[in-house]
Structures are given as C-alpha cells and as structure tokens.
Amino acid sequence: MAADLVGRKVDLIVASGGLLSALAAKRATSTIPIVFTGVSDPVAAGLVASLARPGGNLTGFSPFQVELMPKRLELLTELVPQAKVIALLANPNFPLTERIIQDLQGAASTKGVELSVLKVSTDSEIAAAFPTLVQQHAGGLLVPADPIFNSRREQLLALASRYSVPAIYGWREIAEAGGLISYGPSLPAIHLQVGIRAGKILKGAKPADLPVEQPTKFELVINLKTAKALGLVIPQSILARADEVIE
What we know:
Layout: H1 2-7, E1 13-15, H2 19-28, E2 34-36, E3 58-60, H3 69-79, E4 85-90, H4 97-111, E5 114-119, H5 123-135, E6 140-142, H6 147-150, H7 153-162, E7 167-169, H8 172-176, E8 181-185, H9 187-202, E9 218-223, H10 224-230, H11 236-239, E10 244-246
Parallel strand pairs: 1-2, 2-3, 4-5, 4-6, 6-7, 7-8, 9-10
Antiparallel strand pairs: 8-9
C-alpha cells in the first residue's frame, strides 16, 4: 500500500497505523514527506535521528504508549489488589513487544505480582488466551495499544465480559465501548495535531525541521457499568483521579 501511494506521486503520506505502517512508508520513499502517529520511541525504531530534529523525511507524534504500560499495571493492581497474577496480551510481531515485557516484568516484581505473558496475533489465539489466563488465576489483564488489538476491540470486550476479566486498555474509546478502564493520551487530540503537522508540511515546512510531538495530557476513564457487571467496587483513590466516569 505504501508503494502504491508512492507510485501515485502523492504530496504527503500519513502513517496512522503505528510503527509497522510508519516503517513501511519509510522503506517506500526517502523523499515524500511522512507524518506518523502512534509510534513509541521513534528514535529507537530508526524513524528519526532525534525527537527535536528528525533529520529526514519523517516527523509525527509519539504517544508514550509503550512507556505507559507500567503505569497501567500500577492502576490495575490498585483496582484488583488481591490479584497475584496479571496477564499481558503481547503481539510477537510488534517490534517493541520485548521491551514492553521487560518493562512490565520489572514493574510487576516491584508490585509483588507475577506477570503472565500470552503471545497472540490472530483471532483464534486471542480467543484461546482467555481460558488460559483464567486457568492461571490471573486477576487482571493488560491490553497494549497495539493496532492488532485496537482492530479487535469487539472481540476483546466480548471475551473480557464472558470470562469476567478486569482489563485495562490504552484508549478511552475502548472504555466508552464497554471496557473496564483505560489510561492514555487523547486519540482525537493526536489526530488533530497530526492534521496540523500535515498542513504545515503541505505549506512548505520540512519534516526534518519539525520536532516529533508528544502528549502532555493523559486520560483515565472508568466504566462503572462494566465494573458492576464484573462485581468490582472501584476504589475511591482511582475514582478521584478519573477524567471521566461512565455510568
């Protein structure tokens, strides 16, 4: 698809599918400006030379999604303090998965819980993961803000409900759709900034000179209806910090 866009001689490419789409666009062209979104640590991924001065034909928005995973673990253990095991859905094809696992293993050790890593990349593997985490007596589930999971939102919500698993997600849209809790940057705000960045480039700005932007506000959203269905009482300490409580 990236090669097709290059063949059409477009003036700019927006890579909105996270790291994999940004890498595909980068491989396809070194001249057409590219604005990426949803890429944690674009320097380590080889997309830009630095956040302040990207240096090539790419710039964009880094949403801290990988860096926020330990914070989500902290919120989940606060929500289900009795949990001895916390499960993680991990996409083995995502380039930063091993870093996510390492960060979470350290955070889990600090919290005194065991991290169970369930590597999945297909509908059937996701479906099979839930009986497994129940067998492991996992008290909660971490779902990364990976495009592979975002595109399977309905499946994840249905499985979490069926198996009564408290799960935390990266985007508020999933909590609004029935997820228990979410913590992360605002997706509409990111898309707005990406659009503004694209507009600047189309007016003559160079991607090399436009710093990679990062979020300054993070949203904590709690779905009380889902909590009630799971038989959970949300601690006041979490409710007090919530940006939105869905009733």
